Amino acid sequence: MASEPRPSDTTPMISVAYDATESPSAVTAKEALKLGHDVTLSFSGDALIVKDKAIAKRERSKFCGVPVGAAKSELPIPFYNVLWAEVTESALLIDYATVSKSHARPRKLKYPLDGVTLEDAAAWIEELLKRAYGTSQRRKRAKVLVNPLAGPGGADKIWEHTVKPLFEAARMTLDVSRTEFHGEAIAICEKLDLDAYDVVIPCSGDGLPYEVFNGLGKRPDGRRALRQLAVAHIPCGSGNGLSCNINGTYKPGPAALAIIKGVRTPLDLMSVTQGDQRMLSFLSQSFGIVAECDLGTENLRWMGAARFDIGVVQRIFTKRTWPCEVSVKTVISDKDEIKAHYRKETNSADFHIRREGDAASSSSPNADSVSSENEAGEGLPPLKYGSVNDKLPADWETTTLDDLGNFYCGNMGYMAPNANFFAAALPNDGLMDLVINDGTISAMKYVDLMTSIESGHFFNNPLISYRKIVAYRLTPKQKTGYLSIDGEAVPFEPYQVEIHQGLGTVLSKRGRYEIPGPMGWDRLGSGVVEGKSNGTP
Ligand SMILES: Nc1ncnc2c1ncn2[C@@H]1O[C@H](COP(=O)(O)OP(=O)(O)OP(=O)(O)O)[C@@H](O)[C@H]1O
């Protein structure tokens, strides 16, 4: 009787052979390997099927450590979870991840290559890797930046125990720096050898990605740097907006897998001018209740993401308002038209596979600001509307808002887990999403409004105005307060923002944001659709 194959590093007795009825090349074409009597590796749908009782038993579902359900004879491994495959020491080695909503852990299969030629094994591996990676680059070369002080702490451990093992299993090249002071990531990215890396990966909150974009943008070849080097994100902070949007998760393990399989995606970036400074913003700018809750709750940092919710409730009941003057260049102000824009962009044939260089294919009204190949190699694009120190363009609409509660401009949907403030945000439509609400609404209605963010009804709530814009200027009327750019505090002074379509590049899970869109966007007539999931990552 044949011995039962056991796929461990220490099992030398496994023989690998093709089905006797097939020639090796025919089997290769059918993408199936029969290994000894009891093991077959084949492709089916979107998974690698490992027919091997020992492995299926090892990976059986467990509840409190006790196996549940009937024992299975095969293990399906989604191609998305396959990290690498190679022949090493005359054995076929497959690295994959076991994945749940909150975890991803590396695993290995190893079968001796007895009876299979190296050529046949290589062809089969190539087919597996093609299915596992699709258009995503294999073996990405990464500059990793770990902020040991991010969020509630723990970035070092997350990197060492959760992320690094997955990246190593995917055979990525890793160059790791631990940031030691505020602003260090800017300096690192200013000097980075662009040709030595494919991606910069901050293990942090949203503060380090902000520094990465700004470091790349400060270079004399800023445009090329922002185009060539993708930015990814391992969530280690308390907000982790970037990871929620591009990885679809705020959990480090699944985020690492999203990066391994991530595709280059052009990202709109915003120029913010204030005083004589110009900086890049990738996420949002806020003034009013959100800025106060983000920056005025540093004392509650130990609470993680909950500090934001506590801050909101505290401020709603004090009925504070933040008077200011705003001047805006609006492109779309009607919510139904915004849904139609979202629908058009989302349904465009290439939406799911939009890649680097494709931003210009967008039908955006602001498409003329796309950075072109000719411009690559130069510094940041010129400011189309001047800076905060220039005269306001004549076609901007200026309003005084004495009772403002919240002025929030975003480039991505999620600002934090469960906080999809900008439901209609798109990665490269060349437009910013602007949300404004009054601060004098009743506390009950305010609580209702803020809780509607999580339920997905925020966009449709008549208490907020939601616009697609290309530029604005905000001038606070009070002397002190908080202004937040991507969650970082900036001086409480007038500032001006404009968007640059597709100036940056990120690695995203599917070439799009992992957000559900404004409720009802996928229905003709664009009415409110009750009970639809908000798709919280
Ligand atoms: N070793 C360090 N000591 C002090 N500051 C640091 C260090 N490393 C990075 N920083 C700074 O920490 C700031 C915040 O970074 P990051 O976004 O990673 O965490 P966070 O702000 O705590 O995240 P969140 O706001 O989501 O909780 C950045 O401005 C960065 O410059």
TrEMBL record:
Pfam name, any one: DAGK_cat
GO BP, sorted A to Z: sphingosine biosynthetic process
Disordered as annotated region, ranges: 356-386
A GO CC annotation given for this chain: cytoplasm
Biased composition (Low complexity): 359-372
Ranges of residues in domain DAGKc: 137-276
Gene Ontology molecular function: lipid kinase activity; phosphotransferase activity, alcohol group as acceptor
Cross-referenced InterPro entries: ATP-NAD_kinase_N (IPR017438), Diacylglycerol_kinase_cat_dom (IPR001206), DUF7493 (IPR055916), Lipid_Phosphate_FormReg (IPR050187), NAD/diacylglycerol_kinase_sf (IPR016064)
Superkingdom of origin organism: Eukaryota
Protein name per its UniProtKB record: DAGKc domain-containing protein
